[in-house]
Structures are given as structure tokens and as C-alpha cells.
Amino acid sequence: MIRQNGHIKGYKINGIEIKVSQYADDATIFLDGSEVAFEKCIETLGEFEKYSGLKMNQDKTKVIWFGCPRPPETIYLPNLQFDWNPRKFSVLGTTFSTISKG
């Protein structure tokens, strides 16, 4: 549903757009950082929840900015209980971080 939605823009690496990576019950979603893409993604996940009965665990959901920096107070859809300012976190053994190794 997310991959096919033209309003949801993914993260481009070497010209290839990446939107979703999944393994078992873990999903990682890569977006272009726009508010529209984020809102459409949340709408799509809501539709998925409605039809599948599966629900996203907001307590485990993290949002991290890559590429163009955002002010730490940037929060889309503030009613969602996501962790908006993680410095780093791991997904299936891969660490994502905003901390540069210099």
C-alpha cells in the first residue's frame, strides 16, 4: 500500500527510491521528509490497521531525520506518541544515527 502510493515519497539512494523494509513483524519506513509524505503514510497505515486488525505500536515508533536537517521541535501530527528526537537506534542489528563520526 505504501509502495504504490504516489503521494508517499521515499528516500533516494543512488537514484533508487526506498520506502519500506520489512522482516517478520518489524517494518522500517523511509520517507523524503515532507509533511505530505508523512501524513499520507500515516493515513495508509490507518487503512491497513482497519482491514488487517494489526496495529502499529506507537511506543516503539521512532522518527529520525536524515539528509536535510530539521529543527528538533519539528513534529508532524503531534497527537501521535512517537519518539521524534532519537539520536540513534537499531533495527535488526543496523544502527541508524544522526551523530557523525568525525
TrEMBL record:
InterPro entries recorded: RT_dom (IPR000477)
List the signal peptide residues.
none
An example Gene Ontology molecular-function term:
RNA-directed DNA polymerase activity
Q: Which Pfam families does this UniProt record tie to the protein? A: RVT_1 (PF00078)
The organism's place on the tree of life at top rank: Eukaryota
Q: Which residues are in the Reverse transcriptase domain? A: 13-95
- Cite the entry's keywords alphabetically: Nucleotidyltransferase, RNA-directed DNA polymerase, Transferase
Q: What is this protein called?
A: Reverse transcriptase
Q: What is the originating organism of this protein?
A: Plakobranchus ocellatus
